[in-house]
Amino acid sequence: MTERALVSLTALERSSVVANNTMNRERGLTGVNSYARELGLDPLTWLSARPGAPSWLDLCSGEGRALREAAPALPADAVLTAVDLVGPLVPLPAPPALEEVVASVSVWEPTRRYDLITCVHGLHYVGDQLGLLARAASWLAEDGLLLAHFDPDSIRRADGSAAGRAAVAALRAAGFTYDARRHLLTLHGGRTIDLPFTYVGADPIAGPNYTGQPAVGSHYT
Asked: Would you list the domain boundaries of the chain?
């Protein structure tokens, strides 16, 4: 199989597929187009059951609507962090509990652990998807929950051959569960993960994935 021309992180994040994606920009907390529907779990209900001040990290958060909607219903000392490459297109005053970070999730690092980490259809636009999943696992509280949509078909070897089945097997061995119907990875409890894959680059013209939207191909050895 012929190897695809793979691009660097900088080139990837400047590509039209990543820089202009609208997959998660307007999704709210509950309702038809919502986190609760996509995740099969209402983040607010889950966080409200936590003792003390709950914390939620949302990766590839778009406009951050879900966190903005959750903030007023959570304790004043809750910690909500929204990270997005572009950030809100229409900046609005953030609730006191919400920190909006404009940064690449591929290089950003938090200074704390979180009870809940979500990435709703965001991995589709990340080059090193497996690397981000491993890093996010270490950001999770000991009894926390990580939820992320994942498309195994986007994981490829350097020559373009399929590596999704091997990736899912490695993720499961590391403690993740994968719901193929919902395309959803779940991890209970933070931990250090070492996946047997070395990232070599991304393909920004891999074509549409299961959502019907153009997505990125992630290549590994």
From this structure: 1-103
